[in-house]
Design brief:
about 15% strand; 4 strands; Collagenase (Catalytic Domain); globular
Length: about 150
């Protein structure tokens, strides 16, 4: 770890217009909300092919997805990798009538919550789960900060 506090690395790759600072802030806010001070989180933006390959290899689903997270911690420190399907996030944002940066914040928070050990049911109960309530509370706070700036 590079010093005191969580270490967050955002890899935007080809998506040079991506809001890397905002994504870092979303991950840090999620860690802070969970009371985690020792953490290393890597967040990487991928195109459809990259996220599809991860989804097929590790989750057995041969299609693009919005976010995949891997917890790598050993109990003493939170370690994890979060991968966001940037192109898929753009499609979802358009479908939902949201700004892309809001959807990216949501996915960064969602992935970080998974790294922290949170999970949600599949199906209709997914959006009423405690994980989603926490996620949306964090999204609202970050988006409100953006509007106030």
């Amino acid at each position: 770890m590079k010093g005191a506090g969580p270490d967050v690395t955002v890899n935007t790759g080809a998506f040079t217009d991506a809001p890397s600072g905002l994504l870092e802030r979303a991950v840090l806010a999620t860690l802070r909300d969970a009371g985690v001070s020792a953490a290393e989180i890597s967040l990487t933006l991928l195109d459809d092919e990259g996220i599809r390959n991860l989804n097929a290899r590790y989750l057995g689903k041969d299609r693009p997805t919005d976010v995949i997270a891997f917890s790598l911690g050993d109990g003493g420190q939170t370690l994890g990798d979060v991968y966001i399907g940037y192109v898929q996030a753009g499609r979802q944002a358009r479908e939902l009538g949201l700004e892309l940066r809001e959807e990216l914040v949501r996915l960064a928070i969602h992935g970080t919550l998974h790294v922290l050990g949170h999970d949600h049911p599949q199906g209709d109960e997914r959006e009423s789960s405690p994980m989603f309530a926490r996620q949306e509370s964090l999204v609202r706070a970050i988006v409100a900060d953006l509007r106030d700036a």
